[in-house]
Amino acid sequence: MRVAIAGAGAVGRSIAGELLENGHEVLLIDKAPTAISVERVPQAEWLLADACEITSLDEAALQRCNVVIAATGDDKVNLVVSLLAKTEYGVPRVVARVNNPKNEWLFNESWGVDVAVSTPRLMSALVEEAVSVGDLVRLLRFSHGDANLVELTLPEESALAGTQVGDVEWPQDTSLVTIIRGNRVLTPSREDSLEAGDELLFVAAQAREEQLEDLLSVRRTTAS
Question: Keywords on this record (predicted)?
Fold first, then answer.
């Protein structure tokens, strides 16, 4: 897979390193000469250019990329890069970094963004995820399709504890994608049973999040 990353700062270089380790082809683009540090990520291609310019993106052969990541520290730049990547070059997957949470509402399909990653929101979500049981925590927003990656730790008193995945009437537009149980990561099957303390990861439409939280957190009733 060929990936172009606009922004060769610490974030861009870190992403590039991970992708290269996984066997992908990576191009780093930055207009600042001081950001071109080939020795830090020697396996990547490097391009000194302004990623907001069509001529630069032509030189980068963006049409050959499977994914473009707009990872600069400037939200305006990330939006322009995303829009150009999607509309001018037809890049199938565009991921954009959101620096200021106040701008998050702009990072949607209208600007060519398929996935928006807000570092402040993600850090906050990870803190919530670490301390919350029974509360739905939004980890990541997928702009295309208005869906989110959400997590909930199943509480002891949940009525679904001990229930098989296939027996649960999940809300529409939700999909259980992973169960994290201790040190194990499980791909759920219909026969798997939910256990108290399981971390459940869903891709869910935003409109279904409250319904999903109510379903998972409902308490068992005890006979008097």
Answer: Ion transport, NAD, Potassium, Potassium transport, Transport
Torsion angle of the four alpha carbons 77, 89, 44, 93, in this order, in degrees rounded to the nearest 10: 80
Whole domain around residue 87: which residue ranges? 2-118
9 and 76 housed in the same domain: yes
Q: Beta strands of 63-111 (E only): which ranges?
A: 67-70, 93-98
- The DSSP secondary-structure symbol of 79 reads H
Mean pLDDT computed over 51-75: 96
pLDDT at 151: 85
146 close to 206: Cβ distance less than 8 angstroms: yes
* pTM (global) more than 0.70: no
Residue 88: other Cβ atoms inside 10 A: 14
Count of domains in the chain? 2
Answer yes or no: are the C-beta atoms of 189 and 165 closer than 8 Å: yes
102 and 64 assigned to the same domain: yes
pLDDT 10s digits, 149-171: 888 888 888 889 999 999 999 99
Same domain for 170 and 192?
A: yes
pLDDT digits (tens, 9 = 90+) for 126-136: 444 444 566 77
